[in-house]
């Protein structure tokens, strides 16, 4: 059985005091949740205080991005080694906003994945198609390219540590959400790709999260799907009550 993972990507929100207030609310109301994994991804400036706040709790810490080198003349970048030092156990890699707004390509994302794994951190590897690509019936081709290039050179042992997050770009921050059938179709396709690139045991064990306007009123239907193993939550992760309800999803 794949243990569900509920991750909150706070994006460019929350000062340190605001981040700590949110964490305290999550710690209080999710302390009993041992049947899932819970991860939060604050801004870089809040990582250390949040890391201290979640010690001895059931909440893990992720960074929203990293660079593919651990040191050097890379002004403004943050390395996996530094993120590990700050208290992170997970790193989001290849989020659609990094791809769309900051020009990250599959090859760079592949280098980042390898750098994260080299530091014994868990990458949350994001993939997904744009609305234009979906309307042109290019979704499967896009996902195949992102998965094949993004995971190129990883061993099976490394792959067992990777979490994949399918996030249709057209559903992120738009209020739109893929139907449960659309989401399941994409997740099943990705799992099939993993079986072909690696092995059936890898495909059966790797968790594939859904991201894209996940909210309390749609999480139950999403989590009822065979190949959806959790959620990567954006806006709804900024409100304690919403994220708590998502983490307390009820399978339909």
From TrEMBL:
Belongs to the triosephosphate isomerase family. CDD domains: TIM (cd00311). The active site is at residues 95, 167. The keyword Metal-binding does not apply. This is Triosephosphate isomerase. Its main location: cytoplasm. PROSITE patterns: TIM_1 (PS00171), TIM_2 (PS51440). Homodimer. Pathway: Carbohydrate degradation; glycolysis; D-glyceraldehyde 3-phosphate from glycerone phosphate: step 1/1; Carbohydrate biosynthesis; gluconeogenesis. Substrate binds at residues 9-11, 173, 213, 234-235. Keywords: Cytoplasm, Gluconeogenesis, Glycolysis, Isomerase. HAMAP family: TIM_B (MF_00147_B). It catalyses: D-glyceraldehyde 3-phosphate = dihydroxyacetone phosphate. One of its GO terms (biological process) is glycolytic process. Its EC number is 5.3.1.1. Involved in the gluconeogenesis. Catalyzes stereospecifically the conversion of dihydroxyacetone phosphate (DHAP) to D-glyceraldehyde-3-phosphate (G3P). The keyword Cytoplasm applies. It is found in: Cytoplasm. It comes from the Bacteria. GO terms for molecular function: triose-phosphate isomerase activity. GO terms for cellular component: cytosol. It is an enzyme of class 5 (isomerase).
